């Protein structure tokens, strides 16, 4: 999966790590005058010039948002107070389907529910990566682990759908036998262990 490889690359080749090493061995954070791309730079870098590995995590989160929404942080939709992150945060969790890139998710897709759950999980991860406060962001190694879990859930759910029949949309309902021996009708996507 390209996202996992990109996350590994960010983790191992992160710009901030190399800049910090150049500026002083062993320091976790350094202040610098390095230029950064607007929309992708972490808030702490933009306001103080502080470089840390968490800056890379922030940038990766913005790249995830851009990848799955087909919106750029510099689009006209985003004014001074509304960032791409804020826009997505206000849309989730229910609006994941509406803000997802239409090329990635179509209602007529055979695995619509599975793909919607996967994209929603990645969007939640992107929000965590792009948290305003650096201490609230995951470490890059944890991001890689989470992406691998999301990928495995996606593959498991596709295999389950292939085994039990094709599901084309979220209107599919199934009956499940509850522990109390009562039968309950619930939307299938609520039953998928995501």
Automatic annotation (TrEMBL):
<dbReference type="GO" id="GO:0005524">
    <property type="term" value="F:ATP binding"/>
</dbReference>
<dbReference type="InterPro" id="IPR051564">
    <property type="entry name" value="LRR_receptor-like_kinase"/>
</dbReference>
<dbReference type="InterPro" id="IPR011009">
    <property type="entry name" value="Kinase-like_dom_sf"/>
</dbReference>
<feature type="domain" description="Protein kinase">
    <location>
        <begin position="1"/>
        <end position="155"/>
    </location>
</feature>
<dbReference type="Pfam" id="PF07714">
    <property type="entry name" value="PK_Tyr_Ser-Thr"/>
</dbReference>
<dbReference type="InterPro" id="IPR001245">
    <property type="entry name" value="Ser-Thr/Tyr_kinase_cat_dom"/>
</dbReference>
<protein>
    <recommendedName>
        <fullName>Protein kinase domain-containing protein</fullName>
    </recommendedName>
</protein>
<dbReference type="GO" id="GO:0016020">
    <property type="term" value="C:membrane"/>
</dbReference>
<dbReference type="InterPro" id="IPR000719">
    <property type="entry name" value="Prot_kinase_dom"/>
</dbReference>
<dbReference type="GO" id="GO:0004672">
    <property type="term" value="F:protein kinase activity"/>
</dbReference>
């Amino acid at each position: 999966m390209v996202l996992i490889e990109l996350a590994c690359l960010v983790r191992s080749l992160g710009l901030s790590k190399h800049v910090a090493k150049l500026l002083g061995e062993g320091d976790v954070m350094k202040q610098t005058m390095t230029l950064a791309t607007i929309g992708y730079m972490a808030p702490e870098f933009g306001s103080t010039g502080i470089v840390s590995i968490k800056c890379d995590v922030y940038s990766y989160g913005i790249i995830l948002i851009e990848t799955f929404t087909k919106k750029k942080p510099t689009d006209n939709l985003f004014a001074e107070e509304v960032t791409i992150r804020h826009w997505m945060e206000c849309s989730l969790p229910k609006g994941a389907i509406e803000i997802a890139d239409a090329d990635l998710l179509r209602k007529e897709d055979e695995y619509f529910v599975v793909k919607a759950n996967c994209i929603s999980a990645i969007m939640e991860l992107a929000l965590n990566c792009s948290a305003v406060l650096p201490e609230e962001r995951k470490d890059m190694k944890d991001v890689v682990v989470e992406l691998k879990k999301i990928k495995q859930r996606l593959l498991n759910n596709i295999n389950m759908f292939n085994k039990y029949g094709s599901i084309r949309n979220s209107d599919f309902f199934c009956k499940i036998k509850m522990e109390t021996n009562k039968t309950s009708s619930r939307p299938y996507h609520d039953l998928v262990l995501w």
